[in-house]
Design brief:
Length: about 150
Amino acid sequence: MSWKGTSTTAVIQDLLGVPVRAVMLAATGQHTGKTTLSLGVFRGLVKRWGKGRVAYMKPLGQRYVDITLPNGNVHKVDRDVEVVRRTFNLESPWEHMSPVVFPPGYTRQCIDGKVSSDDLLSKIKDGFTSLATKADFTLLEGSGHMG
């Protein structure tokens, strides 16, 4: 795949087909303070852009809780998403904020071809597009690793 842009924003816009203002906080491992940093950055973004105009997403999660959606379905949500959503009283759909969760053994299923990477990417793209097109700025939080 060839991307037109040279910046991260340009690559995201080219990949997803939507104009965005976004940043992703990432690290080289687990337990490095990404969620703590995300909480502070999110608070600053809300001060800058205004309440309800900043979105948050953790595309891949590994520690999760089960959340019952309004339609009665149960969705696995990364615990960090739950913390950010409840701290800032966000109303974005859970499944957009935490589209993919890797439970134990999931990496092996991916390697063995039991999980389609196209399906995972589609969930992430759909969630991000939904959030980014309704917000002035989107904060994404990376995951430590998929063990």
